């Protein structure tokens, strides 16, 4: 086994394999749920070869390894005899009901909130990113001569835009899993809210309707984001309530029936219209900030984004990004956050140039490559945040790149991890947009690398 020594060392510093309840991994981290977290020797683990850092809070002990983590995990499972679990996308815990959350939150309800947001939106990001790439390919095809009135164009355009039209269905399925309710009941509620009945009423000029004499605003929920999330959240508690009080033999019929009859009207009358209004206003606020704030908007967002990542609150921006893409076809935030990502890559590159330790150089090189492709965890936790000064340099570089991006009002036309590799998400109606975004990324990278090299860092104190 190639990684046997690493695995043995990890086990000896977490209380042995008998202390592990479950093990999984994401793109960069080995994630362990332990019976007794007090047995974890963080400093000893951090000193191991290949280990870039340790995050030992929340419900998991996360050991940052980098791109090799999937291979390490495979041998880890073989060595320990644990059951293999599917790779996860982000720093997520298993769905829990509100009562369990309140017991486990330990004063950290805000963190739980952002983890829940991530748990809902991250699973659908690949589909959004894929559709965005299709849209970019279509734009390039038109520039190269494809007739935008042809059948071929219409088919590809339908493929690109279909996910945004029916985005609520994806959100309903993802939210149902996160909130622990029957996915198909959630999709049925979504279907009722997405019914063509409401679009037809709006087309006929009818903006209000009623249920049992209670008036409500008619909304076309196509492409909406927040309404379905909150509708499913409410429905999950209705379902749990009826599941507790209805006898076993009747559950299969009455629980879904009563859940639909109660949750759907409530969503149509109150939750849906309010959440829709909030989502639209959030998108408007950020658009206004970037349209009127000039370079300062991008400077601030690009400068603080990496700190938001460290705190986990960057997940809270995903609904805003999704709302912008689905309703207006672009957002202003991703070029600035992408600058912050590339600044982390630049700072890690500066560490590689300056470092004297072979281990530090190896980790920094790997982290730089990962960050350039949009995976910044190894750079943030394994290099820059650990040495402190490079993280500050990255904040300055991100601010510079973000300022450049907002100065030219640069846009992202698709979802995804903004990076040099994922340039297609910036291809849209304005041909120069993608090149200017790449320039913003380059500025962030170079400024961070130079500042890191000039101001240096103390390898011994890390």
UniProtKB/TrEMBL annotation:
<feature type="transmembrane region" description="Helical">
    <location>
        <begin position="434"/>
        <end position="456"/>
    </location>
</feature>
<feature type="transmembrane region" description="Helical">
    <location>
        <begin position="250"/>
        <end position="275"/>
    </location>
</feature>
<keyword id="KW-0472">Membrane</keyword>
<keyword id="KW-0812">Transmembrane</keyword>
<feature type="transmembrane region" description="Helical">
    <location>
        <begin position="113"/>
        <end position="146"/>
    </location>
</feature>
<feature type="domain" description="PTS EIIB type-1">
    <location>
        <begin position="4"/>
        <end position="86"/>
    </location>
</feature>
<feature type="transmembrane region" description="Helical">
    <location>
        <begin position="152"/>
        <end position="172"/>
    </location>
</feature>
<dbReference type="Pfam" id="PF00367">
    <property type="entry name" value="PTS_EIIB"/>
</dbReference>
<feature type="transmembrane region" description="Helical">
    <location>
        <begin position="184"/>
        <end position="203"/>
    </location>
</feature>
<feature type="active site" description="Phosphocysteine intermediate; for EIIB activity">
    <location>
        <position position="26"/>
    </location>
</feature>
<feature type="domain" description="PTS EIIC type-1">
    <location>
        <begin position="115"/>
        <end position="462"/>
    </location>
</feature>
<feature type="transmembrane region" description="Helical">
    <location>
        <begin position="209"/>
        <end position="238"/>
    </location>
</feature>
<dbReference type="GO" id="GO:0016301">
    <property type="term" value="F:kinase activity"/>
</dbReference>
<dbReference type="GO" id="GO:0009401">
    <property type="term" value="P:phosphoenolpyruvate-dependent sugar phosphotransferase system"/>
</dbReference>
<feature type="transmembrane region" description="Helical">
    <location>
        <begin position="391"/>
        <end position="414"/>
    </location>
</feature>
<dbReference type="GO" id="GO:0005886">
    <property type="term" value="C:plasma membrane"/>
</dbReference>
<keyword id="KW-0418">Kinase</keyword>
<dbReference type="InterPro" id="IPR018113">
    <property type="entry name" value="PTrfase_EIIB_Cys"/>
</dbReference>
<dbReference type="InterPro" id="IPR013013">
    <property type="entry name" value="PTS_EIIC_1"/>
</dbReference>
<dbReference type="GO" id="GO:0015771">
    <property type="term" value="P:trehalose transport"/>
</dbReference>
<keyword id="KW-0808">Transferase</keyword>
<dbReference type="InterPro" id="IPR003352">
    <property type="entry name" value="PTS_EIIC"/>
</dbReference>
<dbReference type="GO" id="GO:0090589">
    <property type="term" value="F:protein-phosphocysteine-trehalose phosphotransferase system transporter activity"/>
</dbReference>
<dbReference type="InterPro" id="IPR036878">
    <property type="entry name" value="Glu_permease_IIB"/>
</dbReference>
<keyword id="KW-0598">Phosphotransferase system</keyword>
<dbReference type="InterPro" id="IPR001996">
    <property type="entry name" value="PTS_IIB_1"/>
</dbReference>
<dbReference type="InterPro" id="IPR050558">
    <property type="entry name" value="PTS_Sugar-Specific_Components"/>
</dbReference>
<keyword id="KW-0762">Sugar transport</keyword>
<keyword id="KW-1003">Cell membrane</keyword>
<keyword id="KW-0813">Transport</keyword>
<feature type="transmembrane region" description="Helical">
    <location>
        <begin position="295"/>
        <end position="313"/>
    </location>
</feature>
<protein>
    <submittedName>
        <fullName>PTS transporter subunit EIIC</fullName>
    </submittedName>
</protein>
<keyword id="KW-1133">Transmembrane helix</keyword>
<dbReference type="GO" id="GO:0008982">
    <property type="term" value="F:protein-N(PI)-phosphohistidine-sugar phosphotransferase activity"/>
</dbReference>
<dbReference type="Pfam" id="PF02378">
    <property type="entry name" value="PTS_EIIC"/>
</dbReference>
């Amino acid at each position: 086994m190639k990684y046997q020594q690493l695995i043995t060392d990890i086990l000896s510093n977490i209380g042995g394999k008998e202390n592990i309840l479950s093990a999984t991994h994401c793109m960069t981290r080995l994630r362990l749920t332990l019976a007794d977290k007090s047995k974890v020797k963080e400093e000893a683990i951090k000193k191991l070869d290949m280990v870039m850092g340790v995050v030992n809070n929340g419900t998991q002990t996360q050991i940052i390894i980098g791109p090799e983590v999937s291979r390490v995990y495979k041998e880890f499972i073989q060595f320990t005899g644990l059951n293999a679990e599917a790779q996860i996308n982000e720093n997520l815990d298993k769905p829990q009901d509100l009562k369990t959350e309140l017991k486990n939150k330990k004063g950290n309800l805000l963190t739980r909130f952002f983890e829940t947001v991530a748990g809902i939106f991250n699973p659908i990001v690949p589909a959004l990113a894929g559709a965005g790439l299709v849209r970019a390919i279509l734009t390039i095809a038109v520039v190269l001569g494809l007739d935008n009135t042809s059948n071929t164009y219409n088919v590809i355009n339908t493929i690109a835009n279909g996910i945004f039209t029916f985005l609520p269905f994806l959100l309903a399925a993802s939210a149902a899993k996160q909130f622990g309710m029957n996915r198909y009941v959630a999709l049925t509620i979504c279907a009722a809210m997405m019914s063509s009945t409401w679009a037809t009423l709006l087309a006929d000029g009818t903006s209000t309707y009623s249920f049992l004499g209670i008036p409500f605003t008619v909304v076309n929920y196509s492409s909406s984001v927040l309404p379905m999330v909150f509708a499913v959240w409410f429905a999950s508690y209705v379902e749990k309530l009826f599941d507790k009080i209805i006898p076993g033999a009747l559950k299969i019929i009455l629980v879904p029936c009563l859940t639909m009859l109660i949750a759907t009207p409530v969503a149509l009358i109150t939750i849906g219209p309010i959440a829709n209004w909030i989502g639209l206003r959030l998108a408007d606020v950020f658009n206004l900030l970037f349209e009127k704030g000039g370079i300062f908007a991008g400077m601030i967002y690009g400068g603080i984004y990496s700190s938001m990542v460290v705190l986990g609150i960057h997940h809270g921006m995903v609904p805003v990004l999704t709302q912008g893409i689905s309703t207006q076809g672009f957002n202003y935030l991703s070029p600035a956050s992408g600058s912050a990502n590339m600044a982390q890559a630049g700072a890690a590159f500066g560490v590689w140039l300056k470092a004297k330790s072979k281990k530090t150089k190896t980790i920094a090189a790997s982290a730089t490559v990962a960050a350039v492709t949009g995976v910044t965890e190894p750079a943030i936790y394994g290099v820059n945040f650990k040495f402190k000064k490079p993280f500050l340099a990255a904040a300055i570089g991100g601010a510079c790149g973000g300022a450049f991006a907002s100065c030219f009002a640069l846009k992202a036309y698709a979802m995804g991890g903004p990076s040099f590799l994922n340039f297609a998400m910036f291809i849209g109606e304005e041909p120069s947009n993608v090149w200017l975004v790449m320039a913003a990324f380059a500025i962030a990278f170079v400024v961070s690398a130079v500042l890191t090299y000039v101001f240096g860092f103390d390898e011994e104190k890390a």
